[in-house]
Amino acid sequence: MFKVVGCALLFAGLLLAAGCREEGFVVDDGRVELSFSSDTLTFDTVFATVGTATRRVTVYNRTPDHLRLSSVTLEGGRASRFRLNVDGDTSLVARDIEIESGDSVFIFVQAHINPNDAREPFLVEDAIVFSNGQRLPLTAWGRNAVYHRLLPTDSTWFTAIDCEGWDHTLPHVFVDPAAVLEGNTLTLTAGDELYFADGALLVVDSAARLIAQGTAERPVLFTSLRQDGWYRFLPGQWQTVWFYNHSVGNVIDHAVVENAVGGLRGYPGSEVRVTNTVVRNMSDCGIIGQGATISGRNLLVYDCYASLTVLTGGSYDFAQCTFANYWTYNVRKIETVVLSNCMTTQGGVVGGHLQRANFEDCIVWGSYHGGELLLNAIPGYEMNYSFRNCIVRGGDRDEDPLFTDPKEDDYTLQEGSPAAGIGYSFY
C-alpha cells in the first residue's frame, strides 16, 4: 500500500513538471494570454539616422496564473530597425521575464531608420514576439532628409547653408545652428519643411536674405525635430529664426513657425515682411523686434509663455492680425503685446526710438486679466504707436472677440462676434 501511494505522488509530480509549473509560475504557456496598452505601437515620423523618442507599451497579465516568458524579442532580429528595453533588459533577446497575476511590465521601444533613396515617407514594420506565442506589431513612417550639422573640423559655431544647392524634394533637419551667410539668399518654396533639434537655430546674416514663399495649402514649415506624442505641440524645442543686423529684403509668406523659444527675431537694421503666417507655441516670445523694421499682414500669433509680440525701438506695421494668448503650461505674467522705447541689457537700460508701431484691424486678446497691452517708455526717446479699428483687452475697445475654441487652437470667430471682419483671415 505504501509503495502504491508513493508512486501516485511521484506520478502527480511528473504531471506538474510536464505542465511547466516552476515555483508557482507557468512558463511559456500559450493558454495565458497577455493584454497590451496598445494593439499596435506606431511612430508617426522617424527621420533616417536620427532615431525617435522612446515610446512605451504596457504588458498586462490579467489572468489568474503567474507567467514566466522565456524570451521577448523582435521578429526582425538583428536586422530590425527597432530597439527594445524590456523591464530594464536591453538585450536583443530579453529572457525570463516574470509577470505575476494582475501585474504588468513596461516595454520601451525606439525606432532607428536607415537612409534610402525614397523621396516620400515609407513604412517600416516589425513586431515584438513573446514566447507564449503572442506578437505586438510595430510600425514607423520613415523619412529621408538633408542634414545640417557641424563637423569636427568646423571652426565656427554654425554650419553655412548651401543656398544654391538647396533640395526642395526632402525635409531639412538642423542638428546644429545654421546660417545664411552674407551675400546669399535662401529661397524656400511651397511645401519646404525645416526641422530643428534642441539648440538649433537659423541665422540670416547681415546682407543676406530669406525668402520663404509657401501657399495656403502647402505652407513653409519651421518646426521642432521631435514630433511624436506630446512633443508635437511642445514649446521651446529649438531656438529661433534670427534676422541679424542689416539683413534686409526678407519675406515670409504662407508659413508656420512653431515650438521654439522665440519665433521670429529682428535685430537693429533688419527688415522683414511677414504675411499669411502662423506663429505659435513659443517658450518665450512669438515675434521680437529690436530696432528692426517688421511689417505683418494676416498673421495668427498665439500661445507663448512671455509675450506674443515685443517691439523695442524700430518701425512696425501690423494689419489684419490676431494676437491671442491662452498659454496654459504655467502662469503667464506679462501682456500679449509689449511696445517699448527701451530694453534691459547686462549693461543696464538702453533706449531706442520707437518710430512707429501701427496696428490696424487687429485683435489683441488673451487670458491675462490685467489687460493684454503693455506700454513701456522712458524719457528722451520717441514712443509712437497707434491702434486703429482694433479690439484690445484692456484698451479702448475691450470686447471679447468670441473665438470659437482657443483650447483647441480654433481662433475662428463665432457668429455675432464684435471682431467680424478684423483679425486673421482663415481661408
Describe the structure.
The protein is mainly beta. It is built from one helix and 42 strands. The chain has a 16-stranded parallel β-sheet that branches. Strands 15-17-20-23-26-28-30-33-38 form a nine-stranded parallel β-sheet, with no helix packed on it. Strand 12 and strand 13 form a beta hairpin. The longest helix is centred in the first third of the chain and has 17 residues, at 2-18. The protein is elongated and about 85 Å long.
Integer average pLDDT? 90
Largest sheet descriptor? 16 strands, parallel
In which range does the helix fraction lie? under 10%
Low-pLDDT windows of residues: 1-21
Shape estimate: elongated
| Count of distinct strands | 42
Name its key features.
9-stranded parallel beta sheet; 1 helix; mainly beta; elongated; about 425 residues; 16-stranded parallel beta sheet; 42 strands
